[in-house]
Amino acid sequence: MRKTNNYQPVILAEQRVGHDFKFDPLTTKINIDASQLSAQSNKGLIDTLRQRLQQRLGVPVSIPLSLMNTLGKLCREDIEAITVTLAAGNDLDENGSAANYQLIHLEPGNQSHFNVGLAIDIGTTTVVVYLVNMVNGDIIAKASAYNSQIKLGDDLLSRIMAARDEKGLSELQSLIVETLNNLIRQISAEAFLQAPAISGVCIGANTTMVHLLLGLDPSSICREPYQPVVNKAGIVYAKEIGLEVNPLAPIYCLPSIGSYIGGDVLAGILVSGMHQEEELALLVDIGTNGEFILGNNEWIVACAGAAGPALEGGVTECGIRAEEGAVDHVTIDSESRVSYTTITNAPARGICGSGLIDSLAELFLAGIINRAAQFSDGRERFVIVPADESADGRELYISQQDINSLMRTKGAVNAALEVLFESVGCRWEEITRFYAAGAFGQYLPLESAITIGLYPDLPREQMMRLGNSSGEGARQVLLSNQRRREIEQIASRITYFEMNASNRFMDKYSGSRFLPHTNMEFYPSVKEKLAARQKG
Amino acid sequence: MRKTNNYQPVILAEQRVGHDFKFDPLTTKINIDASQLSAQSNKGLIDTLRQRLQQRLGVPVSIPLSLMNTLGKLCREDIEAITVTLAAGNDLDENGSAANYQLIHLEPGNQSHFNVGLAIDIGTTTVVVYLVNMVNGDIIAKASAYNSQIKLGDDLLSRIMAARDEKGLSELQSLIVETLNNLIRQISAEAFLQAPAISGVCIGANTTMVHLLLGLDPSSICREPYQPVVNKAGIVYAKEIGLEVNPLAPIYCLPSIGSYIGGDVLAGILVSGMHQEEELALLVDIGTNGEFILGNNEWIVACAGAAGPALEGGVTECGIRAEEGAVDHVTIDSESRVSYTTITNAPARGICGSGLIDSLAELFLAGIINRAAQFSDGRERFVIVPADESADGRELYISQQDINSLMRTKGAVNAALEVLFESVGCRWEEITRFYAAGAFGQYLPLESAITIGLYPDLPREQMMRLGNSSGEGARQVLLSNQRRREIEQIASRITYFEMNASNRFMDKYSGSRFLPHTNMEFYPSVKEKLAARQKG
Fold it and tell me: What is the interface pTM, i.e. ipTM, of the complex?
């Protein structure tokens, strides 16, 4: 039975984590009284401006040749004030203040109250652009679209293959730049501004997406020596990649720490604040790949591994992406009656990742599948949406094969986490915070993910969804050079643990194919739920 | 009578002034063992390279996007070594070391023994390009040509007029860039290298020439507010102005301190070392404009003023530029017999500035003109080259009008210097060094210039020609970031003295129209010369 969906997707961090940051954006506007620039002995206009700005900022300011004439023209126009836009440089001092600035725009009048930038989350599937007010930090508008690179391949591996010659690489770069430019046009129109007014951009993305955006060859990411071209690209300029904002606008891609732990994951750490807390925290980002971060203010370890495509909607028989008409929440009562909701409440077209996780958990709690994740009565499938309720008159179901595929994902995640814990000599009970990051972290139903053992069973107040932490991390770094320094320090602090090199992984993997876990003691709340259902 | 010319024009400083500088060029090459860049845990290639370079240099190194892929390609080629070329940034620390570097080139193999740059002197008339070995400081080759901007105007003022619309400005920029590119092609061919191998450029030029090279509007240089667009342009990049060297090569124009005291003059101060000595020194650069610098290691004052076009060869009746067939040296004996030499010993075509100065001095010493610079016998002209010796069968002579025009130049120089001296409360006797800088400083006959009172009469060992000090200053700054800091400090130390605002100038001007000077006591050696001639 379809119910109305009241679920609001989380845009940015659902629970704002309590770490304030110093407001000191990537680009900043300063208003200058034009009379201060008029002829003083033999000083040049540009020299006078540079000196004023350097006095104000306390660090060197460089002025590109392309803007030198502009100032002369502006000054001849007999205006009262000039507003300069300055972009922080690559290098930051120990307090996270920029060691130098570059002038990137000059405009007549006092425009210092209006400065906008973009925080962008480039996912393999979805791209989200946030228009950010860099004067007060607010999000002015948001737009999202599929990553047009999908044309050349659904997943990372197929895109890396498509980029193996220069033509393919250049096409993939053009596709993502086109996606971004379309979103920029859309969001600019919505906010009634000209795209070149956008003065700075910060991007959260995985390592491969950053390579493709910058036109860097990603081939060594997935083959020997498994080494990206760059982890910390630093600031590049909009004109270098053809982004249609101010051509001199700095673009900062959040740093990665290798082929598998990208800026999107580091953004999760930054947003969670786990790198600053004494308490031990675990951050999990599950997609086709799973990334796992464990640590606190003293140490951070990371590992990554394939999680399988089960949640992406591409492999299960009725699976689709989280789009209009996707079944996203499912409950099954003790009489095996199903209720579900769909995205935008449209007639059901398929089941997305969160619907699948719900289905598996509910089938287990209802006793329809056993702890080994087999249908207790030996059936082949279980219908979630009857044919007469679906969009195309086709039954939507979950099959034993689908369940096996989900169990492989869950098993991989369990195994990775256990190997990671063992490696650092740490016990589950020591975890006092759990963060769900990434695209699935935003939408995955927490209770069901615990029920099937995908997430650990912790007191709920210790568990937190980070929302679109990649976008939120990008926003914070856009707004604070101190945050930029912080994420770069996080990157340098992380110890990466190579999962594939571990034999223990396969041992753990095979040992974790039960619901919720081989060792039920790890999942007290699931035990309670089962008991409650059996009672009820 | 024509004699053979043995005169060797001075290329760079005739007497190397005793100030050594720290060798630390604008661009530098470093050889890296390729094995040091191979995969280390999850580090990216670029990150590893950046880290190595930062460790080596002790300052941040930025790597432009355009070179990031190049490294990946080089590393896949299984080579043993990589050579990186690094360009020093704009900012220098207090020791004159670069505060940051940018990678500008990557090449296979160890090429660190070969790094070349250009020191360029852009004069209003003549452009000289020196190809400099940036590993040992040697000049490898030299080429010079007329500045093609002459097409649009002979002198500064007519070029500034020609640049008053954007088309004219852009044409003037193209012309100088074309002149430079032609010289670069010529010099590269001569040295058997490819022009893109040139990794850094340093330019000595007057304020207007720098504006035209950079495409900056020079109009306010010669009219209210008499303020250049920029004095210290800092580093720009070759691709920004279309110079056909490495497109990422830094181009540093020596700073100016206003419309009238350009980087060419500051180069003279730098090369002379007067800014570091306790002794008081006077530096004079006479062309159509005269620039005058007085000072020592504690203070420096400067002034500038029109000197008139007499020396340029364009206004005297038989005057030509210092080119093939120009009479450049003249002696007149007590019987009024003339001997002269010509440039390249070609048949005489006209008289250039140095020939005019010699003629005036010799006419005076021979008693043919009196102290008021009038022909004693009332004649109208004096023939230097008889018609049958000249190239076109025409007499070459110096007229009373020519003499008057030369006297105006001399008078302007005398007046400017006297006002300057008075302004700082300084007497002639305190000067212990005299430096002749600029194009005329290289070629002007010292003794004759003293005889006519254009130069002061000091013990000859205290007088020094700086040769092409603009080119030499550019070479030193190209080879030493410390020198760059020094010239920037000189620029900030100079007090500019506005000559045109001074009524005293006109008083002095009218009082200095005698040979060598109203007060003969200032010119003891000229007194002796006169006495000697009268005896002989």
Answer: 0.88
